[in-house]
Design brief:
The chain contains nine helices and three strands. By secondary structure, it is mainly alpha-helical.
């Protein structure tokens, strides 16, 4: 498919170059190459070929601009959604995001059916990487990471993490507020190993 598209672009480029050369070359040059009769008899078709070639490339440029605009607007909307969600994180979502920092991991295995996980995925804060597993008791799990756009808006203040090394009381609070499913996932990983 890619090779056929390259071939088509190459053919259209040669059509434009050839038609432009034939239409705008000096008459003495065309006469010396014995192409003056060809241009005078088939000039309208040569002009039509030039118009078709230029129209093709203009349509490709237009399609590229539209695609880039759509990507830009989609990214802008995603960032706006993340900004709004970060301000409105509920305790379960905040605790879930803290786990990435507490465990010092960029990727965590999380239950797919958990409401906090679903909400963070729907608002583009978390991205599912795959590696889905299905367990009879706890349901399906997958690997997730914090999206690159969301990392700019998640900090210690937003996640309510203590600055520096946490005290014993702060550590107890963080342990108590961990999501309920984290301990089950850690245990199942130990049994799987």
């Amino acid at each position: 498919m890619l090779n056929s598209k390259r071939l088509f672009v190459s053919v259209m480029s040669w059509i434009i170059v050839t038609c432009t050369s034939l239409l705008f070359a000096p008459k003495y040059l065309l006469a010396s190459l014995s192409l003056d009769k060809l241009v005078s008899e088939y000039g309208q078709f040569i002009g039509l070929g030039l118009i078709i070639g230029v129209a093709y490339f203009l349509s490709q440029i237009f399609a590229f601009v539209v695609d880039e605009s759509i990507v830009y607007l989609r990214q802008k909307r995603t960032v706006e959604t993340i900004k709004v969600k970060v301000k409105l994180l509920d305790p379960a979502e905040r605790a879930l995001l803290r786990e990435f920092f507490l465990q010092g991991q960029t990727i965590l295995t999380l239950p797919q059916n958990e409401l906090a996980v679903k909400n963070l995925v729907n608002t583009s804060i978390l991205e599912m990487l795959g590696n889905e597993r299905h367990y009879a008791i706890q349901g399906p799990t997958a690997e997730y990471k914090i999206s690159m756009q969301a990392r700019n808006y998640l900090n210690r203040d937003v996640l309510r993490l203590p600055a520096g090394e946490p005290s014993a009381d702060e550590m107890n609070y963080l342990i108590k507020t961990r999501p309920h499913f984290i301990n089950g996932l850690v245990q199942s990983r130990k049994h799987a190993a």
